[in-house]
Design brief:
Shape: globular
Number of domains: 1
GO molecular function: ATP binding; protein serine/threonine kinase activity
Number of helices: 6
Order of helices and strands: EEEHHEEEEHHHH
Protein name: Kinase-like protein
Helix content: 25-40%
CATH topology: Transferase(Phosphotransferase), domain 1
CATH class: Mainly Alpha
Keywords: ATP-binding, Kinase, Nucleotide-binding, Serine/threonine-protein kinase, Transferase
Organism: Gymnopus androsaceus JB14
Strand order of the largest sheet: 3-5-6
Largest sheet: 3 strands, antiparallel
Pfam families: Pkinase
CATH superfamily: Transferase(Phosphotransferase) domain 1
Radius of gyration: 16 Å
Distance between the termini: 24 Å
Oligomer: single chain
Structural class: alpha+beta
CATH architecture: Orthogonal Bundle
Amino acid sequence: MPHPNLISPERLFECCGWYYVILPNHIPLLDICTGVGAGGPMLPLVKDLIAGLSFLHQHDTAHLDLNPGNLICTTENQLKIIDFDLALRAKKGERIFGIRGTEGWMAPEVKKNNGKDGFEPFKVDLYSCGKVLEFMDRASKHSLGKWLSDAAAQLMAPDPETRPSLEMLQWWL
């Protein structure tokens, strides 16, 4: 699924029985937020995150491991979502079971009863997106203001049913 905010290889090749993937030059989001990387305005990165996640969800795909370690920026300051090891295809309202994600970035319903109660994967992505937005706002030297912390808090609502949709978030932006 090609999209400007999802990582795609620049080149694939096989040599001596091994397969190699060449990825674009990038800067970890962590470095951007903490000032180690190129820096620059954060709002475009927030919009890129929402656009990439919206695209995945529109194509019935949940990432299930959104965290700053799985987000990079190109040298042109465009955010890209990477690491689709835990991603899965699902229908809206479908529940899945088990523990998926990175500790500290998972929605509470994922860990509830050790994942045996199940959860809606798209709502879990919303929670993790809120955690990432909160991280970006707190770690960045370029604060985006109260609206971002409010949006992050709503996305991290303990009740998955009260989390705003990505469409609502795009409207706020």
